[in-house]
């Protein structure tokens, strides 16, 4: 799982760079309904996701339990960022395209994000569910 997390962090880094490149065009930002607040929140969320995935994956490859906890905290922070992003007006374009109320679209986005975060959290926590998993007793804090 540690190797998969490192690969995932690398892919996220590439996609974040591509997104930043796309956001540099004013026409694309206007078409997607993205403002500077959304860009800042997306970049912050991406950097946290990349850092926790890569560092946690390296720690997990070294059989350190704190890597699992770091990635789980990263998933939780990413979920909180997705909640904030869904209520900052980033769903305006989707609401206009579907004809639904903006609050309905935001609620659907939060629900999908919750399911995805839960599945990712369960996958990352697999080493904790195995008895005699070989992980040390390292703690993230203390």
Please give the alpha-carbon distance between the first and last residues.
24 Å
Q: How many helices in DSSP terms?
A: 7
What structural category do the secondary elements indicate?
Answer: mainly alpha
Radius of gyration: 17 Å
Shape: elongated
What integer is the average pLDDT? 88
Order of helix and strand elements from N to C terminus? HHHHHHH
Strand count, sense and barrel status of the largest sheet are: none
Q: How many strand segments? A: 0
Range of strand content:
under 5%
**Stretches where pLDDT falls below 50 for ≥5 residues?**
none
Helix content: over 70%
How would you describe this structure to a colleague?
It contains seven helices and no strands. The chain is mainly α. Helix 4 packs antiparallel against helix 6. The model has no long low-confidence stretch (mean pLDDT 88).
